[in-house]
Design the sequence.
């Protein structure tokens, strides 16, 4: 294979992975932008809609665990193609059956289907690209979720100003089917092509896993990891789910103005992801410290919003965007850098799926919990909750620091000996 063709295929694989995951977020992020219209037009309570969103995250979380393992067994082309096509069909069916029962059933299936993407995509990165490029490629790919939000909150937000909320489900569904077709047609079958002296082939990774190389983290580490992922999951998806509604009910914007202001959040989240890369350099790839710093910054933003006085709508929108940005940065450290750094275990998809599973358990809790708190007490209670969780998550992350650094050093020595 000549150098020019190799470069072309590298670009092709990246573009397909980026398009697939951006579309996956397009097929789920629109729920938040449709929420205000669904509440007003259908007279559904926040608790009901929050519970439906929570059900999505539960199946998404369980799916991450299941599909993460399957992602190390099945070809990425098959698993990603199946997941994206099923999710697209679910969105289209919601358009034709706009009632609570159908929305709940199809949204639950949508969650499980979309969980089949991130783990296999991370596996594709670990197999296709050389080790020195994997972290950078993974960071770039993680920005695809922001693009999904921009399309959902920007493009669909404008459409919903003169169309029914049902179009927020139809358009992503059609887009998803188109991207699925492109994925199945153009993604190369061979994903363990040698790219350089430092690349470890999938066969050698699999052999080492079969010989017993594994993750010996212990109960304490898993407990702290659970706390970290639950807390940032509740914060991150609390913002992504409730931000448009928060801007309407807390900041006092109209639905149209809230849709426009909400665009600040995915843009700021993109900044947060690149800030995660900067924090990794600043801390010399100390994942626990990077995670803690970013989550504390998110907590500081919530504190400013909760206890600040005389805040106008613009200041509220900026603080919400910053809180979301730092939470997304922490999430990037968790589900992108850690799995890629442990690539030599041959379990990239499993690790990414497990961490995403824990993260979305938090997301599943965030939907109904936030809806209940807001209806029972008010938005200040939700802001206080997110602030407390940010502090708890940051402290727990520092408890992981020593063990993760030890494991990373051991892992690097094993790679050097291959």
Sequence:
């Amino acid at each position: 294979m000549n150098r020019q063709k190799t470069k072309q295929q590298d670009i092709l694989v990246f573009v397909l992975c980026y398009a697939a995951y951006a579309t996956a977020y397009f097929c789920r992020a629109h729920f938040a932008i449709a929420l205000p219209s669904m509440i007003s037009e259908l007279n559904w309570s926040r608790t009901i809609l929050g519970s439906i969103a929570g059900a999505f995250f539960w199946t998404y979380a369980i799916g991450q665990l299941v599909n993460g393992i399957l992602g190390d067994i099945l070809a990425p082309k098959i698993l990603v193609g199946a997941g994206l096509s099923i999710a697209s069909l679910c969105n289209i069916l919601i358009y034709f059956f706009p009632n609570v029962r159908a929305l709940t059933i199809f949204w639950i299936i949508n969650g499980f289907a979309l969980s089949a993407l991130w783990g296999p995509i991370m596996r594709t990165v670990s197999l296709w690209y050389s080790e020195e490029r994997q972290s950078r490629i993974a960071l770039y790919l993680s920005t695809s979720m922001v693009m999904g939000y921009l399309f959902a909150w920007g493009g669909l937000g404008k459409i919903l100003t003169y169309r029914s909320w049902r179009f927020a489900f139809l358009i992503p569904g059609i887009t998803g089917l188109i991207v699925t077709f492109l994925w199945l047609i153009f993604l190369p079958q061979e994903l363990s092509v040698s790219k350089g002296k430092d690349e470890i082939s999938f066969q050698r990774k699999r052999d080492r896993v079969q010989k017993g190389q594994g993750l010996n983290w212990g109960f304490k580490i898993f407990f702290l990891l659970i706390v970290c992922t639950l807390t940032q999951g509740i914060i991150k998806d609390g913002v992504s789910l409730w931000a448009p509604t928060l801007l309407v009910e807390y900041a006092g914007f109209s639905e149209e103005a809230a849709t426009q202001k909400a665009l600040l959040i995915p843009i700021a989240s993109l900044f947060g992801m690149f800030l995660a890369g900067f924090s990794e350099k600043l801390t010399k790839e100390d994942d626990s410290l990077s995670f803690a710093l970013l989550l504390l910054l998110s907590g500081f933003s919530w504190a400013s919003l909760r206890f600040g006085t005389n805040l106008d709508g613009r200041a509220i929108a900026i603080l919400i965007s910053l809180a979301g940005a730092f939470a997304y940065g922490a999430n990037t450290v968790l589900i992108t850098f850690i799995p890629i750094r442990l690539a030599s275990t041959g379990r990239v998809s499993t690790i990414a799926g497990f961490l995403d599973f824990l993260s979305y358990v938090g997301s599943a809790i965030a939907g109904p919990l936030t809806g209940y708190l807001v209806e029972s007490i008010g938005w200040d209670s939700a802001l206080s909750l997110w602030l407390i969780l940010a502090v708890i998550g940051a402290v727990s992350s520092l408890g992981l620091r020593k063990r993760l650094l030890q494991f990373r050093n051991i892992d690097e020595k094993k790679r050097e000996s291959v």
About this structure: The first helix runs from residue 3 to 42. The chain is about 85% helix and 0% strand.
